[in-house]
Specification:
Length: 175
């Protein structure tokens, strides 16, 4: 395994930070919050593991690694949707060039939400999503994901699971 590895993350509500801490602990590597690292520092590492939460089709803070060269880049995203049945193609294409996507490995992890802690903007976005997507969708067209959204709307839910980092850990250890 390559020894010169770091985890960098950007987290708004804490679930991405939690995953980043678990990854750093498992691999026994340094961890940095994205705002605390300068782009030039990325070149000091052979592998950067970058984690960012998913918000409105974007990976928060991903410009740091998308616009600054990394020798090797592993990305993990954290969002509410179940990664097992979510297509992230549009999000990845919005955040990374095709050239960069061909060189990186991406993992998707499931986070959580506490509606009481959401910013006014995020509360508004969730409310709009509920009205436009869920409330107007006929019952027969609702997916399991829609049902989970409806059942948890306005509440605190945590889907984080330490065991879900293991494919990422195994991948990095294989480098």
């Amino acid at each position: 395994m390559i020894n010169n590895i770091a985890v960098i993350y950007k987290s708004k509500y804490g679930t991405t930070k939690r995953y980043a801490e678990w990854i750093a602990e498992e691999l026994e590597i340094p961890i940095f919050e994205a705002s605390k690292i300068k782009p030039a520092q990325l070149a000091n590492y052979d592998v950067i593991i970058y984690g960012g939460g998913l918000y409105a089709g974007g990976i928060i803070g991903s410009k740091l690694v998308a616009e600054n060269p990394c020798k090797s880049l592993v990305v993990f995203t954290v969002g509410l949707a179940n990664p097992a049945n979510t297509d992230y193609t549009d999000i990845l294409n919005k955040n990374f060039t095709q050239e960069l996507l061909s060189k990186i490995k991406v993992f998707h992890l499931r986070g959580g939400v506490d509606y009481k802690k959401l910013s006014i903007v995020h509360k508004s976005m969730m409310s709009l999503l509920k009205r436009l997507v869920f409330d107007k969708k006929p019952l027969v067209e609702r997916t399991d994901e829609d049902s989970t959204f409806a059942a948890t709307y306005g509440k605190k839910v945590v889907f984080t699971d330490r065991s879900t980092i293991m494919p990422l850990i195994d991948y990095v250890r294989s480098l």
